[in-house]
Each structure stands twice: as structure tokens, then as C-alpha cells.
Design goal:
By secondary structure, the chain is α/β, with parallel strands linked by helices. It is built from eight helices and 13 strands.
């Protein structure tokens, strides 16, 4: 069985594990300044999305505009993209991408520019937007916008393997230690910080096809997975802390292409990782609550991506 361990990565957006970066106010960045009109259009685009101003957002595109999303299937004309995105603009905020670095490259003639920009997103972390603007009746309009997830070169091989192996039969197990507890009593609930961490975990895994959310018999593990279970429309399950046989039986029964979230303890998570085929899972410090172990189980073996949330 093949096992690959990637430790302490920066946040990445993955099909089954999309993670994090902080947000600043829209428009705040240290970017090289380019054509003012182009800057204003791109800043307005991000601001309109953050404020759910659909009328402003779509007015910034050229009639022939194409929007390329992060999934390979997401190639939309502007009207197709409008139909897809309008439900998001019924919310308080459609989405928030914060530009922090931007480059603008005018083409000869002055009526067309290329651009690329790095963006921060709370859920996906570092993203990249690129595309083309052209002048229409003296005003800049977006003719193409391409949103992507830049992948560091040193982990690109592993990430692309994860993407290639999303075939039926691959299963994912996301493993965490329970979040911060309220006290040192025998079976305390989560603290305020712990409950916030559990909600954050649920947001991270919102797009993952969770088929099971499993805690131990302790309240703090159940409360750690409860928000994710609620988001997935399933009930939290319970397996005794050291009953690895029962837990592995449950994980082996997951439908192909699905995932499970498991919350354990600092002394059970490393052992579970070993039982799943990770030769060197490492240890969890007593004061560490933010590690997320993403295990891919496929026909070609087991892979571990060790992240923080």
C-alpha cells in the first residue's frame, strides 16, 4: 500500500477539502498601480459581489463576456453565469474575494488589457483571477474572468493525483481532534472558542459529500462534528473512543466517492491514522486543536494531507 504524507501545508482549495485565509476589506492591497479605469472596474466587481449588488456586478461585463470558474465544467457566457449566480445575490453577500496583488498589461492600441490578481477568500485561501478587459464606448468592461486556485509546485503532484483519483470507489476521511473544551471536568461541552471552531470546520467541509459524521462517546467530540452533520443533513454517529475495529468497519462501508468526518482525541487520532495505513502520523500536542487530517483511500493506496483550520 502506498502512503504519502504532506505536512503543514498552506491552505489549499481542494475538491473535497477547501481551506482558509483571512479576509480584509474589499479593495485593500499593496498592488502595482495600472490603468485607473481598469483598477476601478475590477475593484467595483469585487465590491459588488461582497455587497450582493447584482445590477452593478453584471453591468461591468462586456456583452460577449466569458466567466471561467474553478471547476473544469464552469465555462459560462455572461447570461449563463448570471442565471447561475443570481441566487447568491439574494443573500447579504454573494461572495467575497479580497484583491491583494494585481498586474495590468495593456495591449498595443490601448483598447484591450490583460490582468492577473491574487485574491484572498475565507474558505478557499489564496486564489487567482485573470482575464481581459476591453473598452466599449470609452468605458472598460470585462470580456473574460478566470478564477483559479494556484497550487504550490512542491505539492502539485499530490494534489493532481487527488483530482485524478476522484473516481467511484475513492473514499475520503477527514479526522480532527475535538475542539476546545469548556473545562477539565469528566465530560465537558465545547467552550465558546470550541463551538466557533466546530462551525468553521462545517463551513470548510460544506461542499464535501459527507456520508457520516462520527464522534466518540464524549460530548466534546459529538459537538465538534454536529454542525457539519447538520449541514450535510445527517445524524451524528457515535463509536467508542478506542473501538477502532468498529470505526474502520463503518469507514469501509462508506459509498464510493463519499466522505466521513471523524472527531477523536489527541491519543486516538494518531492511532486511527495508523489503522488507516499512515505509517508516520505524528503526534498531537495537548494544546493543539486546529489540525485537520485529510485521508484519501483509493485503489492505489492511502494518502494523507495534513492541514490546519
Amino acid at each position: 500500500m502506498m502512503t504519502r504524507v504532506l505536512r503543514d501545508l498552506t491552505p489549499l482549495g481542494l475538491a473535497c477539502c477547501a481551506l482558509l485565509a483571512g479576509c480584509a476589506a474589499p479593495g485593500s492591497r499593496s498592488a502595482p498601480r495600472g490603468e485607473p479605469g481598469v483598477e476601478a472596474v475590477l475593484d467595483s466587481l469585487h465590491r459588488a459581489a461582497a455587497e450582493a449588488d447584482g445590477e452593478m456586478y453584471f453591468s461591468l461585463f462586456a456583452p460577449e463576456a466569458i466567466f471561467l470558474g474553478t471547476d473544469a465544467t464552469e465555462r459560462w457566457t455572461i447570461e449563463e453565469f448570471r442565471a447561475f449566480a443570481l441566487p447568491y445575490f439574494d443573500r447579504e453577500s454573494a461572495w467575497t474575494y479580497v484583491p491583494r496583488d494585481r498586474h495590468i498589461s495593456p495591449l498595443p492600441g490601448g483598447d484591450v488589457v490583460f490582468f492577473d490578481e491574487l485574491l484572498d477568500h475565507e474558505k478557499y485561501g489564496e486564489c487567482r483571477g485573470s482575464g481581459v478587459l476591453r473598452k466599449i464606448d470609452g468605458s472598460w468592461r470585462i470580456a473574460q474572468y478566470n478564477l483559479s486556485f494556484p497550487i504550490p509546485n512542491d505539492v502539485a503532484g499530490s494534489i493532481t493525483r487527488w483530482i485524478r483519483h476522484r473516481e467511484v470507489g475513492t473514499r475520503w476521511v477527514f479526522i480532527v481532534r475535538h475542539a476546545e473544551k469548556e473545562s477539565e471536568e469528566k465530560d465537558p461541552p465545547l467552550s465558546t472558542i470550541g463551538r466557533a471552531r466546530a462551525e468553521r470546520l462545517a463551513r470548510i467541509l460544506a461542499d464535501v459529500p459527507l456520508a457520516a459524521c462520527i464522534g466518540t462517546g464524549y460530548l466534546r467530540t459529538q459537538q465538534t462534528v454536529d454542525p457539519a452533520a447538520k449541514g450535510a443533513g445527517i445524524e451524528t454517529e457515535t463509536v467508542a473512543p478506542h473501538d477502532f475495529s468498529a470505526l474502520l468497519t463503518r469507514l469501509d462501508a462508506l459509498p464510493g466517492g463519499s466522505a466521513a468526518l471523524v472527531a477523536g482525541h489527541s491519543n486516538t487520532v494518531p492511532e486511527l491514522l495508523k489503522r488507516l495505513g499512515i505509517a508516520e502520523p505524528g503526534t498531537i500536542a495537548d494544546d493543539s486543536y486546529g489540525e485537520l487530517f485529510a485521508v484519501r483511500r483509493g485503489g492505489d493506496g492511502t494518502e494523507l494531507l495534513r492541514l490546519r483550520y
